[in-house]
Amino acid sequence: MPASRTDSRSFRTTHRPVSRPPGSRLPRALLLLLLLTGASVAGPAAPAEAASSYGARAVAVAASKEGAPYAHGASGPARFDCSGLTLYSFRQAGRDLPRTAEQQYEDTDHIPRDKRAPGDLVFFPDGSTMGHVGIYAGDDKIWHAPRPGTRVRLERIWSGNVRYGRAS
Question: Fewer CB in a 10 Å sphere around the end CB: N or C, the chain?
């Protein structure tokens, strides 16, 4: 049963957010890292839902690069193209990947959609090759460097024609 307007207003008046001193907000990447760390302390995920430990750390690295500009052929630390962001993020997490989206696809364990987990790679086919890659962040979203004129961002997966890979 959906909550009514009255319910949401009463929630707002009885549950106030914790007030913090100015400048004390945690950056999104640090918050994500804390959440991922907390999840690993709480216990292992079910095997079907467990991305590699590299992948979990790579998500946090990619999130820390939010807003970095796209540059064709760039692999960080300040500018990225799509496969450059995945290469950089996984390298920082301790796992080397090849340079291009196609090579990265060939270098990962291919997994079905229902087994994907945060930290897996999401590949977008373009004809007979992989034309784009991002890092799965959960909730049907990826971190990626979309195209020239854009910046690294978190975005909903816009196509059903994707493939998933796990860097183990």
Answer: N
